[in-house]
Predict the 3D structure of the following.
Amino acid sequence: MATTVGSGTLTFEFVDNWAKIPEDWHLMDVAGVAVDSKDNVYLFNRGEHPIIVLDRDGNLLRTWGEGAFSARPHGLHIAPDDSVFCIDDGFHVVRKYDTEGKLLMTLGTDNQPSAKWGGEPFNRPTHCAVSAKTGNIYVSDGYGNARVHKYAPDGRHLLSWGEPGIDPGQFIRPHNVVIDADDNIYIADREAHRVQVFDANGKYITMWSNIHRPDGICLDNEGNFFVGELNGMGGVDDAPNMGHRVTIYNLSGERIGLFGTPDEGEGPGQFIAPHGTATDSRGDLYVGEVSFTIRGKHMDPPQELRCFQKYARVR
């Protein structure tokens, strides 16, 4: 019997074994997931094939990026023109590719991080998003900085905002970026357990609080945000209700849905470490997880765990 999650008009069905990739491939962690205009699904993973491209039925189309990334592939975004942005926090860069893997632009310089907490790009960036209205690029700079950087489509740096802290407009760990149709910028401020909302020039608008370590955040065509909440907070990482779920919010920041279980797991409707979320044109949801980093590598012996799931929209 199929497992159904969600409720009302936001109901989904777990799709078992959707991704048809060779059994001997090891994804390890799927840190980022994104969908292009043809509903092809891209997995940015920490295995031997960093970018895996699947069609909407889960058939393998191609791989690329072998040898191009550090051991820390982190964020993935597909722009309105189908260019693919790969954020590598190990190399401190953001790379722009076409859908076949041809490098088009690099922001930052490999292995040359800016001073930690200094505010300049980049020190372990985490994610980015591209405005459909202007083509401007917004980068969350994330592990060694507490900043958001805005770039022109040609890669010129335009402005930055944010500093370490917990007040409005400050960040503890800006982790993911999403942009709505009005060019409002939503930043998952993970360790502050909140999402902050800004205008296109970094002016603070509001925040949504009480979200456990928001990691992956995406926006579907109907104005629904899907937020992956991450487990792994020191000292309470074995407690129930501490992440390992996906919550749904509307444009007003109201929680309108939630799925997952109180305890982490690999069963249908369960999660271990949601890290990247994406939806396609039909409203189907894809969730990448960093299950090895959060749980598997700490097991004795270390164990590769499920790190990617698909949920098909029912209604």
